[in-house]
Amino acid sequence: MAESLKSRYGIEAKTYIGMRYWYPFTEEALAQIREDGINALVILPLYPQFSISTSGSSLRVLQEEFARNSDFYGPQRMFHTVVPSWYDRPGYVKSVANLINKELESFTPEEIAEGTSDGQPIPKHVLFSAHGVPASYIEAGDPYKDQIIDCVDRISALLPSEEDGVKVHLSFQSRVGPVEWLRPYTDDVLPSLGEQGVKNLVVVPISFVSEHIETLEEIDIEYRELALESGITNWRRSPALNTDATFIEDMADMVADALNEPSQSVTEACVANNVGNLELEAVSNRMEISSAGVLGVGNVDDLAGKAKLRKGGW
Questions:
Q1: How far apart, in whole angstroms, are the C-alpha atoms of residue 215 and residue 205?
Q2: How far apart are CA 272 and CA 234, in angstroms?
Q3: Which residues sit opposite 41 in a β-bridge?
Q4: What is the pLDDT of residues 199-229, one digit of tens each?
Q5: Looking at 73-229, which runs of residues are DSSP E strands?
Q6: What is the DSSP annotation of 74-137?
Q7: Dist CA 247 CA 249 (whole Å)
Q8: 3-state helix, strand and coil shares in percent for the chain, rounded to the nearest 5
Q9: Angle at the Cα of 83 (from 159 to 185), degrees rounded to 5?
Q10: DSSP class per residue in 204-263
């Protein structure tokens, strides 16, 4: 992205990575920013859709750090602006659609014929599997669900239609704890698709821009196994965007746009997206995932426990 900013916009920019639940932590990135004497900062969450639990949680950390160190982060010392969400950017939408279309085109004539052999009128299906959040977050004003639906609609507009032999579905994965999460759940949708005679399926990790445990383990291993058990014989998984060239260029465009548009502070972004409507720590404690990563991923003990369960332990 830095190379794209320099070559296409003439902008010399340093990039910093700050993570919420692993190294380098946000606080470490901010320490490096202070050491480098940066006086203009574009804050770009790597979550396309805004959620109180992801971008909101990260922005709250920044808000607290900025308040504690106002001598450095105050408006007289450092300009900053936030890009709260970017799921609707044409470059992002196009890059995801391109990856899906590549997978759709990979089905062989024999697989396409098999796709309508069991009473299913549409030969190819796409399942967008988004990270779930507790339903209470949406009730508190979290825009995540609406943004996911809008995002899927935009990408679907660039895919073949049902008349062209492709049907789109949406589900939510990675729920933890006893509370109600966004439905339908991916592990419910896959058996249902199998019952409907679906044979050819492309699964899309829509809320993830890079590969990690919830794509490589949860989708590629657990959900793939469930799909095969449910009769979905021809499985494809669209890769995460990672370093896709169209995506990286759009990221650079986002930064350039942010520098030329009216700024939005961390506090303004939190208020605009209802972050203050929900006490994240209280909810996390109630769900017993307060020491885990985003929505339960990242806690080493928790992951070890899941591994033991899969192996028959506990």
A1: 7
A2: 43
A3: 80
A4: 999 999 999 999 999 999 999 999 999 999 9
A5: 79-82, 124-131, 166-173, 200-204
A6: STTT-EEEE----TT-HHHHHHHHHHHHHHHTT--HHHHHHTTTTS-S-SEEEEEEEEP-BHHH
A7: 5
A8: 50, 10, 40
A9: 50
A10: E-TT-SS--HHHHTIIIIIIHHHHHHTT--EEEEPPP-TT-HHHHHHHHHHHHHHHHS--
Given a contact cutoff of 8 angstroms between Cβ atoms, the answer to whether 246 and 93 are in contact is: no
Q: Position 232: which residue type? A: I
What is the spatial distance between Cα 245 and Cα 249, in angstroms, rounded to a whole number? Answer: 6
Distance CA 99, CA 86 (A): 18
Distance of alpha carbon 52 from alpha carbon 143, whole angstroms: 8
- Indicate whether this model's pTM tops 0.90: no
Q: Could you count the other beta carbons within 10 Å of the beta carbon of residue 147?
A: 21
Q: HSE-up of 300 (CA within 13 Å, CB side)? A: 1
What are the structure tokens assigned to 256, written together?
A: 């350039």
| pLDDT tens digits for range 144-184 | 999 999 999 999 999 999 999 999 999 999 999 899 999 99
Q: Measured between alpha carbons, how far is 175 from 132 in angstroms, rounded to an integer?
A: 6
- Give the pLDDT of residue 279: 60
User: By C-alpha distance, which of 175, 210, 209 is closest to 189?
Assistant: 175
Whether residue 251 contacts residue 93, with contact meaning beta carbons closer than 8 Å, is answered with no
Neighbouring residues of 271: CB distance < 8 A, sequence distance ≥ 6? none
CA distance 12 to 225: 47
Structure tokens given for 300: 């080493």
Q: 185 in helix, strand or coil?
A: strand
